[in-house]
Amino acid sequence: MNAVNYRLLIIAAIAYAALVTSSVLLAAEFNSDSIVGKWKDPDAPAIVEITNKGGYYEGVVVESSENPAAVSTLVFKNLVYDGSDGVWKGTVYSIKRNKDFDAEISMETDSKFLLDVKAGLMSKKFEWTRVK
Asked: Which of 42, 50, 120, 130 suits a disulfide with 59, CB 3.0-4.6 Å?
């Protein structure tokens, strides 16, 4: 291996180590209750409040200007925090499709989370924002 390739390998290893370290530090700044609060649905003018139910989390529509009938609908069900991955796993109810889907939530920042919805082999990601 020549000196240039060796240097590139070292730089790549350092960059990878920095990425892994920053991911671990980011996950460490959140805990199971980091998800508790009011969140804005990215697809509808609705506010969902996520609460700790003692061992799991639920999210209920508390506001919806476009669809008042959706208020009190249970959207996030049986979310359980996996501290090793820093994610909540459970189901999400789609009001539009009248169906539950497997879901995984990971905190991006204190004011944003990423919802990964799975339907068979397909998945779709949604970015939710915290309501102050």
From this structure: 50
Which sign, positive or negative, has the C-alpha torsion 21, 128, 77, 121?
negative
Task: Please report the pLDDT score of residue 3 as a whole number.
Answer: 64
**Residue type at 112 in one-letter notation:** K
- pLDDT value at position 118? 94
Q: How far is CA 65 from the centre of its chain?
A: 24
**Distances from the Cα of 126 to the Cα of 17, 19, 96, 105, angstroms:** 28, 23, 15, 10
Separation of alpha carbons 94 and 73, rounded Å: 10
Give dist(CA 26, CA 28) in Å, integer: 5
- pLDDT (0 to 100) of residue 126: 95
State how far the Cα of 105 lies from the Cα of 36, in Å rounded to an integer. 12
Question: In angstroms, rounded to a whole number, what is the distance separating the alpha carbons of residues 9 and 13?
Answer: 6
Which residue ranges in the chain fall short of pLDDT 70?
Answer: 1-28
pLDDT attached to residue 23: 43
Tracing tokens 């390998």 back to the chain, one arrives at: 9
